[in-house]
Specification:
The protein is an all-alpha fold and about 100 residues long. Helices cover about 80% and strands about 0% of the residues. It starts with 6 loop residues before the first helix and ends with a helix.
């Protein structure tokens, strides 16, 4: 604001680029917590069918190719996330020294 930028420009150009990693990390942590806490989700959610409850109900009926595909997708997404994090960490490490 001291250099003549409007509030919206300051938000888009300064604040959001710095907040983007924190917002992404918080979203990921919230998703993983809700995915992990099956019992809490079961008692709190009510009548809405979440992904966790959907997978659990399908597993009770028996393993199907759809359940196997969901498992593979979750594993692949986890590995891709870990690889991206590691590549970014190495890139940051090289730029520092």
């Amino acid at each position: 604001l001291d250099l003549g930028a409007s509030h919206s420009l300051m938000l888009r150009r300064v604040l959001l680029p710095y907040l983007r990693p924190a917002i992404f990390a918080a979203s990921l942590i919230a998703f993983l917590q809700s995915f992990e806490n099956y019992n809490t989700t079961l008692f709190v959610i009510g009548t809405v069918d979440t992904m966790t409850l959907n997978i659990a109900s399908r597993v009770r009926l028996g393993l199907t190719p759809a359940i196997n595909a969901i498992g593979v997708i979750l594993i692949v997404l986890t590995v891709i996330g870990a690889l991206i994090y590691e590549m970014q960490r190495r890139k940051d490490e090289q730029s520092l020294g």
